[in-house]
Amino acid sequence: MFLRPAHFRHPQFRAGIRDMLPVTPGFAAWGLMTGVAMVNSGMSVLEAVLMTVVVYAGSAQLAAIPLIMAGAPMWVILAAAFCVNLRFVVFSAHLRAYMMHLPRWERLLTGFLTTDLSYVLFVQRFPEPSEDPAQRLAQQAYLAGNCGLGWANWVLSGLAGVALANFIPSSWGLGFAGVLALLGISCSLITSRLRVLAAVAAGAVAVAAFAMPLKLNILLAIAAAVAMCLLLENRGLSRPATARAGESGDGE
């Protein structure tokens, strides 16, 4: 997917880069502080560099770092990372219809390079999968630009954090900029009452269960949002407000 010249020449490749650019400063700050946190927690420079390049999951890295340094059993570290990243099961289930025509290695590479933000931007631009080869090429080109810039931004900022760990105090809290960037783009997708209710349910559960170990509050928040959608999706709440208003006008 990301190695074909046709993708790089496609206009959607540049569109993917343009859509990602406004939020790269926030996620660069997050990556920078993740690199600092790895070194300051006692990891060697080599370990921090390898984790930055190979793991590519900021929330999982931040959850695993203190467990690794505390000498926690491997299953505890893996369970924590699993719980934190369980939201990607929902993402992959949604993206399945977009990706199943691709070879396995391309699907695996796409899964590795897809983040919360790239997923949100992609489904915002392409709300429905397509059987048309031209549209599929456009979607793949968009992901190539979007995910490619996101990966390069994260890795470079993480490596910068590793290199500058002795000069940047963790107390700066720059990682919160990444959270704000993701929150802003996520809020732009809340275009129906169902999505509002799902977001409120997920947020309320995440806060209420914040004290749970291994970031299990995230798992519960996802479950609450999914349950809310399953219960209410057949009640007309999933349509945009503008569409419902239009239908009301036609009926009059």
From TrEMBL:
Subcellular location: Cell membrane
Entry's transmembrane regions: 20-39, 48-69, 75-95, 159-182, 194-212, 218-234
Keyword match GTP-binding: no
Signal sequence annotation: none
Membrane topology annotation: Multi-pass membrane protein
One Pfam family here: AzlC
Main location: membrane
Domain of life of the organism encoding this protein: Bacteria
Keywords: Cell membrane, Membrane, Transmembrane, Transmembrane helix, Transport
Alphabetical list of InterPro entries matching this protein: Brnchd-chn_aa_trnsp_permease (IPR011606)
Coiled-coil annotated spans: none
PANTHER family in the cross-refs: INNER MEMBRANE PROTEIN YGAZ
Entry similarity comment: Belongs to the AzlC family.
Name of the featured protein: AzlC family ABC transporter permease
Organism, as annotated: Polaromonas aquatica
